[in-house]
Amino acid sequence: MTEQSDASRVRIEPWTEADLPLLRRTNAPEMTAHLGGPETEEKLLVRHRRYVEWAGTGTGRRFSIVLVPEREAVGSIGYSERVWRGETVYETGWKVLPAYQGRGIATAAAAAAVAAARADGRRRHLHAFPSVSNAASNAICRRLGFSLMGECDFEFPPGSFMRSNDWRLEL
């Protein structure tokens, strides 16, 4: 028996102060295995502040991924500026809580984030850098029409390097 897709019930909503508990839930070992492991509470609070403040800067956006009509937050997604190979681009990344994975939620949220980055109109390219071993995130990039530019060594979070795929989407 396959689970019903929840993709049609997905909304992305701007990150707010109220999303700190969600950030803590996505900081679990199983959620950060491809990202260098969980961050300290201090680093989480800095990240949360950055996410809240991005909306007014024009340098990025963070969203909570919400299922409707329940209004249940099940993950996060966003994009932010990064200089990559001499070009200022947007970088995107997402996390969906384990109980909600495999239902099309991340793909639907990523499509909505792509639309937001495109509507922003400030950058030509959106990149995603999932670990080469993260099959699910690489599949999302493929489904959404990103072009695989190749493998690279990528630093995320700061101080932690991983072998990643560089996926690029024309905005």
UniProtKB/TrEMBL annotation:
Keywords, ordered alphabetically: Acyltransferase, Transferase
> Is the Zinc keyword given for this protein?
no
Which family would the database say this protein is a member of?
Answer: Belongs to the acetyltransferase family. RimJ subfamily.
Q: Which GO terms describe its cellular component?
A: cytoplasm
Q: Which organism is it from?
A: Kitasatospora atroaurantiaca
Please name the GO terms that the record assigns under molecular function. protein-N-terminal-alanine acetyltransferase activity
Residue intervals of the N-acetyltransferase domain: 10-171
Q: Does the keyword Transferase apply?
A: yes
The name on file for this protein is RimJ/RimL family protein N-acetyltransferase
Gene3D superfamilies, per the entry: 3.40.630.30
Output the SUPFAM superfamilies linked to this UniProt entry.
Acyl-CoA N-acyltransferases (Nat)
Q: Which domain of life is it from?
A: Bacteria
